[in-house]
Amino acid sequence: IQSSNLLTHSSSVVCCVLCCQLGCWEITQDCLMMYLDGKPPANQFLCRAYLCQGQLISSRSISTAEDLDKAVMYYLKAIEIAKDKSRYHFLVFNASLLYLQSVRRFLRPGQRRLLVSSLTQVLEALEEVQDPDHAWRAELMLHLVECLLDAGKQKEAAAVAKVTSDLIQAHKPELYPRLFSIQVNLSLLYCVINPARAAAAVLIHSGSISPKYLVFSFFSTELICFWLISYLVNIRSISAEFRSCFSQLWLSVIARLDALLQTALKQADARATQAVCVCQWNTCLPLLQHNLRKRVQKPLLTLARALQHTHSLLLDVLCRVHTELAAIDEEDEKLESAMKHLQKALELDPLSQHLSSSLQLLQLRSSVHSAPTRPKERAAKLIQQAKEGSGREALRKRRPLLVSAGVALAPDAFQTVLDADSKVKGLSGDRLELLAAKAQHHSSCVQKVKGHLDGLDKSSDDKERVKLWGSLAKTARKQEVFDVCQAACRFCLLYDDGRWKNTTDVCNIKIISGSSVQTLCRDCKSFLVDFPED
């Protein structure tokens, strides 16, 4: 009976591992519950179960330190069991692979510090079992150096960098350029040197580096990339008569890089693939404009596929690529595809409010037959409908949409503030009396803005509301509905009271407001002083 139970337990773990590989997470969870409820012994099957548990947690969206700790805990439990018995040492290496795969999205500035403790334990375990894959250990040690720097631990980072340097020079010299770039860029060379002799010591230390450690393993691929970059630099210096062909020349370089990227993928060279991806992204940046981005859709798709296939740590680049692909699909009215790209971008950067609001707008656009219930959602949908219109004939249709959006955001005040720039009816008299009446009417209408914030629910999302006001102002300006633009700017600038540190968007609204005021004054043609005729 005991052997039968052990067989059942081992079968549950084997089934669990297969389900993890196939992505059947519900079955994985059932198998884990079945196995762990039986209080299994500490053997290789328990290690594998812990690894599956970590993958199960990682399959969901990990965006907080608490979620990260839950997933990492199971990998560390598996490592603790596996490192005590020599026949289980291979599981320590497997756990380190799955660990890095799970924490990839945290390997970025500002979040690396969360990995210092767990990554240190993983490396200590690999050192304890004397894992023979020195390249993998060096890769993890390079990540640890960056994590320590992100946590502000300069001295510890310098010590780890020294150990990493010795390991790389002894076993994997092609990784030395990466370590050296980290040392130079982040001034690690100064941390272990007497400050009084820093300059001379750095020169001596740099001069002792053997040239063979500074040779890239993918030199030929890099050489082609550098040649293409120099070609782009030459394009910028072409005389004016050839500027009309600028985009075509730029696209030809992108096509060459795209072919080079596909070759690197076929050769399964991850480092070369990543190098070409960086070069391709930098080359595509100038063409990511409203009228040109559609022409780089195919290269961007190849770029995203390459970064995902190689499990690249260029998460910010991959997030930006998916965001641009979503914008391209949105312009082509491919809303389902655009939402998929935005969801992938949000998985890489779950704290981005811009991505979440963009996804929410796409979801509103896709739900044609369902009317939004929240006022903010109604306003967002009306603004989006106004954006889709074009041409002078549609101006009369777009203006009511923009006004309705403003009323949805401020039902008690928007229409009154909008009337501030309208003509005063039923007045007669000389010019000064008309101007005085208009100024008094304008002042009384604008006063309605001041009490708007006091009447709002204190638990409401101010950031979402101010973004909608800003979007309304920008859309109205683009559609040349300047009175709606000016009214929206007044409400948007109410939030310029020091509540947020980043005021870039508010500065843009101030510029738009000034431009709309200038246009309204020009249209009114009301001046206090008549200029003499020539």
UniProtKB/TrEMBL annotation:
Pfam families xref list: TPR_CFAP46_N
Endpoints of the signal sequence: 1-19
Example GO biological process: axoneme assembly
Keywords assigned: Signal, TPR repeat
InterPro entries: CFAP46 (IPR039586), CFAP46_TPR (IPR057466), TPR-like_helical_dom_sf (IPR011990), TPR_rpt (IPR019734)
TPR repeat residue numbers: 319-352
Source species, domain of life: Eukaryota
PROSITE patterns: TPR (PS50005)
Name of the protein: Uncharacterized protein
Organism listed in the record: Cyprinus carpio
Origin organism lineage: Eukaryota, Metazoa, Chordata, Craniata, Vertebrata
